[in-house]
Structures are given as structure tokens and as C-alpha cells.
Amino acid sequence: MPSEQTQRPKPLTLPALRGTFGDWTYYSALLPLADLATRVSFADEIHKNKALSDLIQRSLKGGKAGSRAKDIATYLREQGERFFNSLVIAVYGGKPEWFPVRIVKGDSDMPEPPDTEGILGALRLSGGELLFAVDGQHRLAGMKRLVLENHHGKVPPALADLVSALFISHRTDNLVRTRRLFTTLNKTAVPASKMERIALDENDAMAITVRRLVEEHPYFSGQRIAMNHTNNLGKDDDVALTTLGNLYDILRVIFLAMPGKKRKALEYERPSDPELNVYYSAAIDFFKALSRIDSAISAYFSAQSVKELKKICAANRNRKGGSVSFRPIGLAILAEVAMSLKARGRNDWATIMSRLPLQLAKIPYRGTIWTAQSTIQPKNRVLCRNILAYMCGDTKVSESSIRTRLAEVNGEREEDVVLPARVSLAR
To answer: Which of 134, 223, 269, 373 is least surrounded by CB atoms within 10 angstroms?
Structure first.
């Protein structure tokens, strides 16, 4: 009997479809979320060894998985547009029964659907069955968490939602077959890629804002943003300022610097339309400020033709270096430094950063992210950012750690390392 159940559930009759897939017979049914959460256990029954069963339980209740269950419960409780695909549930024991239903042609003009014999019907669970999730265990964990939460008398509507489930038969004498299905379903599930999230996600504040920027704002329209999910510009991206993926990452830095914002909420909890307008404005304000810091960015945003854009990019992204703002890694570093200044209460961050060097061939970029071979070195990104933060008076950055790292990167003795001068913090 599942550990979550304290007493035998009552019989339950579910509308269902019966089908076959490969050598599996399955029943596609609908049942209330609360019933599913209380009746279905985790897939620990696919192991005879208790330690292996406990491992599954721990993997679902602790660490990142436990946090994920909490996120799913929050999603179910707060998202009006919530939706899940079907869970796959194995059934053994008890006395589940299938009652086929046949459609009889009446007075309606609706033609009788072909080949429905034995497909339509009802699945009756006696309550004595053991049900466990073969696929959808994290969703199940989130549902269970929602059911167990104290709602202070206000029952979440999600508990009455009808959830789709695929019921399959499980035999205790063939654990290998069920384990194989469990592994196949879970290993072949591919998470949504970053590009898919940017293109489709309607909860992610960064994704929504990226799409709006590209579709509506002249700074980012046309070919100005390369449709790459990575932070790498290709050789043919000779008109683009940066990539779609890099713009997404920069927006996350900006939005996280706003009061009370957390990464998970930004990614999974859709903001209201007024909040989305605030995010959009914050993004525009950052890039407008950047154009006041870097004249090359100002020229780029003012350009009216592809020919002009290409000329500006060629002048600022070449073998000699050019502007750090025209490299995705440089743009991201500038955003991080700007938001760290803002977090220190320096809303005049643009004024302070206007005193920093912006050419890749100059320190602190030369010898960190810009190599002697005129290439970008991403592994020194944090070092470059820390030096810029140090130059902007960030006391949280350790001067000694910067010296040590610079000595390692450039093959010098620490005592020979000369740090760049700090810029004025005068308003």
C-alpha cells in the first residue's frame, strides 16, 4: 500500500479510452488532481531493494528536486493558465475493471465514428490497487505538496482540475519491463532549449521582453540581433550587435537587480502586464544609458541602414579589438558591473562607467578576455568583471585575489602586477 495513504481509497470510476502502443495496453483517463495526488505513489515499487526504492524517494524530496516540487506547487496554485501533459501510471493489485461503451447512432446527424469497438468506456478502480507514477514524478511531487499545504480555508482551484493520466498494467513478476519503460520515458525526455524558451515561453519575463524588444523597438529590430541561442556571433553576423541568447542573459542581470526579484520567479511566474511594461522600460533604460557611455553604441542605435550598421560593426569588432560593447561577453560584463553599482545605491552608474576604458585592446580587457592573438578568452570573464568592479570602488572585490589571478593568467610574479587606477566616484 502506498506510504502516502492512511486508508484504502474509495472506488473510483473514470471516463477513459483504451488503446495499444507497441506491446503495452493503456487506458487514457481523466481524474481530479486531488485524487491523483492522494492515490498515486512514486515509482519506488519498481525495485525489490528497499535502498534503491528509498533512493527514488530521496531524489524526489530533497535538494533540487524538492525545490522543483515546491516550484510546481506554486505554479499550480498561482497560474491560471496552468497545464500538464499526461502522467504515466502503473497499476497492479486490486480489481481494476474496464467497461466498454458503444456509440449508438440516434437522431443526430453525427456520423458514427469508425473502429470504436472496445476503445471508449470507463475504467473502475476498486481502491485496492497500487498506483505509482512511471513518468511525471516531479509533477506528482508538486501535486502532493499542493494537497498537503495549509491553504487557510481557501481551496486552490487546481485541486479540482481534471488531470490526464495513462494507466498501464504492471506485473510484480516482470519488474524489468516496468523499469525499462521508466528509464526510457525519463531519459528520452528533452528539456526545452534556451531558444525554445525565448521563442515560446509565456511565463519567463526575460523571454517575453526579448521578443517584445526584437519585434517592437528600433534598437533591436531587423538584423540587429542575431537569432542564436548561444553568446557567440558568427562570421555572417556582421550587422548584429549581439545574439538573442546574450540579450536574454543581459535582461536577467538587469531584472534580478530590481527590488525583490528572484531568478525562479522571473522564469516561472508570469508577471502582470503592468509589471512586464516595467521590465521592458528597464531594459530600454539600460541600453539608452549604455549609448551615453559608449559613442559607438550611440552611433549603432542611430544608424538607419544595413550599410551603416555593417560599417559600425566592422569598426568596433575586428582583429584590433574595437569596442567591448560589440562583443557578447563584453556587453554581459558591462551589464553585471552596472547592476552591481546600482545594488550599491549608485543610480549614477552610467556616469561612473563612462570613466572606464571601453576598448578591448586596453586594460583591463587586454590580458584577460582579449588575448595577444586577438581572440576572446571566455574563461577570464570573471577576472575582467572583478577588475572593472574594483576600478568602480567595489570593496567586496579582493585586491589580493585579483593580483593573484592576474599573475597566474599573465605569467607574472604577484609583486610585479600593477592594477589599473580606480575611477572617480564623484557625482
So the answer is: 373
